[in-house]
Amino acid sequence: MVDVRPLNPRAFLEIARSLAQNRDEASLRTAVNRAYYTAFLVARSKMLITGPRDVHSRVIRVLEAMPGQAATAQNLRALRRLRIAADCQMFVMDPVYQDWERNWHRAELLANHILSRL
C-alpha cells in the first residue's frame, strides 16, 4: 500500500538535529541542508508556490513582499546561503562559513525563527 499523505517538512528538522549530534563535517553540512529545506518547504507550501523554475528565489521574493515578513525573508536568504555553502562547496573559502558547528547552530536558529513566523 502506498502512503499518499503529503510530507511534513518539519520532520527534516528533527532529522537534522539527530545528524548534528554526530558533530562531523558531513553530518553538520547535511543538517544545515535539512534545516534549510524544512523552512523552504514550509514557506513554499504556505504561499502556494509551485513549479521548479527559480522557485527558491521566488519564495524569498514573495515572502519579502508580504507585510511584516521582511525579516523572515532575510532569514530564509541567510539560511539558503548556508545551505549552498554546505552543499556546493567542497572547500569553503569564506571564513564566515568554515566552522560547521557554528553553521549548524546558526541554521537551526534561523529555521526555528522562520517556522515561528510562518
Please describe the structure with a list of short key phrases separated by commas or semicolons.
5 helices; 118 residues; 0% strand; 69% helix; mainly alpha; globular
Describe the structure.
By secondary structure, this protein is mainly alpha-helical. The chain has one domain. 69% of the residues lie in helices and 0% in strands. It is built from five helices and no strands. The protein has helices spanning 10-20, 25-46, 55-65, 70-88, 100-117. The longest helix is centred in the N-terminal third of the chain and has 22 residues, at 25-46.
In short:
By secondary structure, this protein is mainly α.
Into how many domains do the coordinates divide? 1
Tertiary shape: globular
Structural class, by secondary structure, is: mainly alpha
Number of strands: 0
Alpha-carbon Rg, integer: 14 Å
**What's the assembly state of these chains?**
single chain
Distance between the termini: 33 Å
Low-pLDDT segments: none
Let me know the average pLDDT: 94
* Biggest beta sheet attributes: none
Topology order in helix (H) and strand (E) letters = HHHHH
- Please report the number of helical segments: 5
Helix content: 55-70%
Strand percentage: under 5%
